[in-house]
Sequence to fold (138 residues):
Amino acid sequence: MTGGVRSLGAIGWLLLFFGLAMLGNAGWMLLDPGHWYTDLPAAVPDTGPYNAHFVRDIGCAFLTVGVALTWGAFAPRTRAPLTAVAALFLVAHALLHVYDTASGLLPSSHWELDFAGVYLPAIVISAVAWILWRREHA
Fold:
């Protein structure tokens, strides 16, 4: 880690932003899963009955992604693999939401509800992973 926050660059700042957002979500899921389940403005109860253990399990996944993205923000040498691993989870998660909404398991309102918190992070982090991969293999 060289130069700290001042030397992050555009990609580093993007990774830091999404990493901190993922860490915040993870913290909420792990520390207060019931509140997260009922109060996240994404209609989580549409996905099925509340299960504190399951919410915390997924909180661990978001914790992992948040750590990877935040770490990558400050460690340019490891950005590509850390971002690729984060993108893998985020894209798999988004595809699950696409399937559930397209098949009618979730109401069609989830196309809009899930955009900012599910689809946008998957798109942005995948794009960053692709850019980083291309830079490494140019």
Observations:
- Residues 25 and 40 are 9 Å apart (CA to CA).
